[in-house]
Specification:
The structure is a homodimer.
Chain A: E1 2-6, H1 15-27, E2 32-37, H2 39-42, E3 52-56, H3 67-73, H4 78-87, E4 93-96, H5 100-111, E5 121-127, E6 137-141, H6 151-169, E7 175-179, H7 190-201, E8 206-211, E9 223-225, H8 228-254, H9 257-278, E10 286-289, E11 295-297, H10 304-319, H11 322-331, H12 333-340
Parallel strand pairs in A: 1-2, 1-4, 2-3, 4-11, 6-9, 7-8, 7-9
Antiparallel strand pairs in A: 5-6, 5-10, 10-11
Helix pairs in contact in A: 1-10, 3-5, 4-5, 6-7, 8-9
Amino acid sequence: MKIAVDAMGGDNAPAAIVAGVEQARDRFADLEFILYGNVDQVKPLVKDQTRITMIPTTEEIAMGEEPVRAIRRKKDSSMVRAAMAVKKGEADAFFSAGNTGAVLAAGIFLVGRIKGIDRPGLTSVLPVGNPQSDTKQLVYLDTGANAENKEINLVQYAYLGKFYAENMFGVKNPRIALLNNGAEEDKGDPLHKDVWQRLNRRDDLNFIGNVESGDLLAGKADVIVSDGWTANAALKASEGTAKIMLSLIRDGIMNGGWRAKIGYLLLRPVFHSVGHKMSASTYGGAILLGLKAPVVKTHGSSDATAVANTIAQIHQMVSSKMIERTVNFFGKADHLKEMDN
Amino acid sequence: MKIAVDAMGGDNAPAAIVAGVEQARDRFADLEFILYGNVDQVKPLVKDQTRITMIPTTEEIAMGEEPVRAIRRKKDSSMVRAAMAVKKGEADAFFSAGNTGAVLAAGIFLVGRIKGIDRPGLTSVLPVGNPQSDTKQLVYLDTGANAENKEINLVQYAYLGKFYAENMFGVKNPRIALLNNGAEEDKGDPLHKDVWQRLNRRDDLNFIGNVESGDLLAGKADVIVSDGWTANAALKASEGTAKIMLSLIRDGIMNGGWRAKIGYLLLRPVFHSVGHKMSASTYGGAILLGLKAPVVKTHGSSDATAVANTIAQIHQMVSSKMIERTVNFFGKADHLKEMDN
């Protein structure tokens, strides 16, 4: 199994990328890597070249660049070269911690959509924070912030999410919910009302109805589908609030005198476990589902461990033959016709 | 100053409502109350009838009822009677902890919109969780979850939010931001791009641009305006996450043995202060801005203190003559014409 890696993307690139790749290489004997990037910078960082090939590139796509233009113009960038390797069949998956928009554009335009998929869905795995819930994680899509999702896209996301939950986490008959502004069938704007009906009609989906964003992390569903606009607003609000709660507690401890500081020392394992549970990097990168190969983007701030975890996620996606399953399912024309009604 | 109170609305009604009214009455010498409700239940709860009039009603609007139908049919409900008292000029403001949709419908159809306001905005005051920020609270609207806001509504919300921040919190020249899916001017769907331009054109607004939902509680703005759909999704996600973080910490303490429990005792003041800061009831109720009188709804689960705090908020709204200021501003036809362009 070969993974094409954009070694230059991300705040800590190339050091964190190379270190993460080496960790993952040591964990999985069947993994090989092609690292695309500035060889002068990358080569000295590689401690052991076993199963790692380096390919020099001359350009980089920066964080603020306009994504589509960047991937069209910078043909010799580490990102475009890595995506092209997948397109040409030289690698099985594409990984980057760089400019999110550019990763999405490279995925859509270079790696390409699976036949039958109208629009790929950016997918995050979120923690379930309810200690009473048996559910450990949630598959959540589309978090791509685009405001143009149509009904049919959300129905396709339900299948993409279902396959992900089954293949990656072994969830049996995953519970699928629709993110909406109320629990009842008739809630939401025309798009959400229509999607509710379409999802409810599908015999092969375990559709459990609407979930409100207040219950995003409550473990009520295994997969939550949403238009990109709403999913992104809810996800960022949730991440921002988690960060702010921790900073308020930290601030209280710093200003709370010796009692608070001793209290912190005693509670440190609890804070660590909550912090670990709520941290985005625990759950790997964001996956662009619906493409012909795994295209995965980690946070720009990822360290080596986060990079290695994300590569483990890609390894599982390829091993479990999730893409083949998706191609197979959407390749049947009758599925698509039914879905469109 | 007279406040018409729906004594029967809310999970803890009428006991918490009556107790909260008495607390507020004891705090403000210029406050009088008319309590609408089942006299057999309400009367025994009132300890001291000073400045409290009771008016018997025979119906109640339940939490699950369809709002518009409920307020049309249940003419002798505590909620409709209280709203009607404001409409008839017998009271200065209307307060309820009951069915949110019905409170909004009673506000719009019975109390009525200010001339020049196309759609009132449901407004919440949120905590600013950033310890480094001087800003203490945020005025946030429209949280009404409706998906049909137009450009002009959001421009009007900017003024309603500005007046609220100035009159209620004494904020000078409040910083106004637009909730959007990115920081730059050209982010978002056509509605958000257009609203950005309209807000930016207004000389009398201190418009600072877009804010993403990840920065909702970061103190970057004094007022954040949004369409109701997005605002509601982000607010509920934030509330849900805060709740889940606290429950994860609680769970960790319960299962963390004696060390964790002693740690908790030492850190209790910190948890209390964070819990207080993040609690919705600290900041009073949700206000339907743009109506001819204050219409305020507290959480259904409000206790007596939350009820009293919400009444204090109404007291300040009336004392500061915010409604008169709004009527005056929107009454000038040229403002509206300009805003529409």
